[in-house]
Amino acid sequence: MQFLEKLMELIVTDGINTPKAQVERYLSPILAIFLEEILFQKFGNEYKMIAPEFPIKKGTIDSTSTRPNQSTNIDYLMFNVTKNKFTFIELKTDSTSFKPSQLDIYNQLEEICNRDTNIFGQLLYDDLLEIKKASTYKKKYQYLIDTKWDESFNAINNMEIIYIVPAKTALKEKRANLQTLYFNDFPKNLTIYPQEYEIINTFLKVLDEN
């Protein structure tokens, strides 16, 4: 476990004290391994990871965009199997970097999802195809479509948003209607890689005061 402890020390302890260090990006693939069980324990629903850094077409969330087929990324897109809905997850590790304006993308997506004229899953899929056409990284988008996107997702027309942020943001207290997890809310124990998770979770809790 010495390697993992050293890795987490570099990511969290050093990262939060280093200018320009992108702690969220460093943590993202690590957290992705555990998110399904973390959310199951906290909310009682079965979740499936679709993809981290899921692309959303700029033109979908902003009709005035001058580059509508370019994308902006959502931290994680998951599938709430129990409730048959998409789960969008926003991850922040620094309370000072969390701005209310960042909620706009998710609010826009929720509004689009609630429109009667859209099947939300089909819209997300069609957008992937449009982004792929405009991108120089076509193989990467095709990989996402081929390996992460299930055809059944096209029929989903509901979504939810979960924010994972430091307790120092006081987001729960400010916006009680949002689904919010602080790092101290994470389960103490998981069945998946339990020893590794225990070490990782110890470092994650430090982020609540960041």
Structure, explained:
It is a single chain. The protein is α/β, with parallel strands linked by helices. The chain has one domain. 44% of the residues lie in helices and 18% in strands. The protein has eight helices and five strands. A five-stranded mixed β-sheet has the order 1-2-3-4-5, sandwiched between helices. Helix 1 runs parallel beside helix 8 and helix 5 runs antiparallel to helix 6.
Layout of helices and strands, plus pairs?
Blueprint: H1 2-14, H2 23-43, E1 47-57, H3 58-61, E2 71-80, E3 85-91, H4 103-114, H5 120-134, H6 138-147, E4 159-164, H7 171-174, E5 179-181, H8 194-206
Parallel strand pairs: 3-4, 4-5
Antiparallel strand pairs: 1-2, 2-3
Helix pairs in contact: 1-8, 5-6
Q: Give the ordered list of helices and strands.
A: HHEHEEHHHEHEH
Query: Helix coverage percent of residues?
Result: 40-55%
> What structural class do you assign from the helix and strand content?
alpha/beta
Integer count of domains? 1
Q: Total helix count? A: 8
Biggest β-sheet description: 5 strands, mixed
Number of strands: 5
What is the molecular shape?
A: globular
Core attributes:
single chain; 210 residues; alpha/beta; 44% helix
In short:
This protein is of the alpha/beta class and 210 residues long. The protein has helices spanning 2-14, 23-43, 58-61, 103-114, 120-134, 138-147, 171-174, 194-206; strands at 47-57, 71-80, 85-91, 159-164, 179-181. A hairpin with a 4-residue loop joins strand 2 (71-80) and strand 3.
